[in-house]
Amino acid sequence: MSRIKMSDVAKAAGVSAMTVSRALKHDGRIAPTTRTRILKIVADLGYVPDRIAGSFSSRRSGFVGVLVPSLNNPHFAETAAGLDEVLTRGGLQLLLGYTNYRAEVAERLIETMLERRPEAMIITFDDHTARARQLLLNAGIPVIEIWETPTKPIGHVVGFSNRSAAAAMVQHLIDSGRRRIGFIGERDDKGTRGAERRRGFIDALKAAGLDPSRRLATVAPPINMMFGRDAMTALLEKWPDTDAVMCVSDPCAYGALTACQLIGRRVPEDVAVAGFGDFEISRCSLPSISTVVVSGLEIGTRAGELTLQLLDGSCSDQMLILVDAYTEPRESSKIAG
Amino acid sequence: MSRIKMSDVAKAAGVSAMTVSRALKHDGRIAPTTRTRILKIVADLGYVPDRIAGSFSSRRSGFVGVLVPSLNNPHFAETAAGLDEVLTRGGLQLLLGYTNYRAEVAERLIETMLERRPEAMIITFDDHTARARQLLLNAGIPVIEIWETPTKPIGHVVGFSNRSAAAAMVQHLIDSGRRRIGFIGERDDKGTRGAERRRGFIDALKAAGLDPSRRLATVAPPINMMFGRDAMTALLEKWPDTDAVMCVSDPCAYGALTACQLIGRRVPEDVAVAGFGDFEISRCSLPSISTVVVSGLEIGTRAGELTLQLLDGSCSDQMLILVDAYTEPRESSKIAG
DNA sequence: ACGATCGATGTTATCGATAACATAACTTCA
DNA sequence: TGAAGTTATGTTATCGATAACATCGATCGT
Fold it and tell me: Does the beta carbon of B209 lie under 8 angstroms from any beta carbon of chain A?
């Protein structure tokens, strides 16, 4: 059961192990006929190279560590897909971890990942612990924070301002004639994207001289549909004259929409509903839900491309890449009749 | 910039590298005082062990390779979460890859993963290429197929029969008085879970002596909401007297539901709609959508536990673990009239 | 036609941790 | 009290590939 190793292949081909190594990674300096012969023997023997040994020897793990809050979210899944797509082309492999939106989990994951000597780390911005930050700074590898624009970045950034994007959406609600606008989201004590969106909500209302206190933000992320429904029910009970609601995400907004439909409030005639993120549900629901469009895939591919550039030395500045995030009005915020 | 290594820590502590190694993995044979002293020095120096070297030496990668069709699907995300939860406890790390439902991508991923010498492989069942199968068989590690019950398993299985589960749901539609039942899903040439569900649909209708030909299954997975809407629109155009539709998944069913609402067919009075998978949307939609409940999390945790048992030798048989999948009737299939 | 260059391949040292074995000090109990 | 066991630690060899350098024959330009 002892595994076939490179020297076995070499022996079978009548060459040295080094030649086999070169044949496998196609590094030029090898005769095409030799290469073909070796590859045939590799296939015949079923040789599978040992990348642990290879990484150890070359001091290149071929890994990029990626941290997302949750996989169960199409945005981060798309970001991971975009990263994977680009990095695979560069011969790199994703080492994916998810934090469940918890900083201490993130710290542990960062530590574990760094033991694998990733060549870069890509982190979805969230409040990091001081130690996590220190670990990343000491790692001596490129660090890219994504999905936000941190005030104190660790390294590079590929993201957008959740705060301004949310503010723009609230402004759209104001422009469509709404004045008594509520917010449904996550509780206030977390440095997450959701908290930034809440700040954007407050920004926009204050700027317009409106009351920003209609907020129901009580649970930790992730927020789901049923929370949106329950929160909207509660919000309408507490502030019955509410004429619009901004939700931290589209699933939450869909829940809020169903709450209105169950209670008998018409959307958008009586209440406008807005979400965030352009999830599938916000396009397909009846009425469709106005949302902030942002492409998780683009964040992934841009971060992936930046990673490749940083690793091949073709980019050495500290980068701040902003991706587009824009308000897309749909039926749920049509100007009331 | 040369990294601190174990021997540096050893020197600082006045012990041998081996003692540092033992202190870090807490393997018993070490004096508590020595251990404390070493851990303090590790922290002070910011030493991060090199697991590549460690894996190379111990011949244990600490990885478990996991293949899912897509991350952008709450089921597989939950399965990954369940696996992660259990395997982390066992000191193992997930190496996650996704295939986009494509066998050739799966083959490439399996090959790449095996180079990392995973200690086990967990594969979401789909049609494997012959080479993928061979690679897995030759790897000499436990292989667990999940989310299905393959007729010719490679190793162990943790799953359920998508075919019978779908058949049971169709039977429920029949029991609720429906006779002209359609199916919306993925095209017929793939060995996926969706194709199994289509077979289950046909099984149930044939068994009841009903016509199973009302099928719209034209695109490759994954199926989305808008496809469900378009397909339902087309299906009702082609077979206007359809009184129920079974959809390959809940998002697809939600799309079909909105198609009915747009056209003016009442659900469930005129048409019953059924989905698969107990996605959030099927609980929250109005009406709620009848579905087949199956826990991706459970599949993950069960597969994780099995992995640990296989690796510590406490289980050596070829295992077939069935998880529960049951029909949950909701409003969308209430008995008409 | 001959030194310079190049292309293909071989040799050797090495990456950093850990398994396996060795050792020294210290207990234990007949 | 001394042989046998126990505990804490040290020593040595090793995992499998690859970087760096070495070699050798073929080719080329003038």
Answer: no
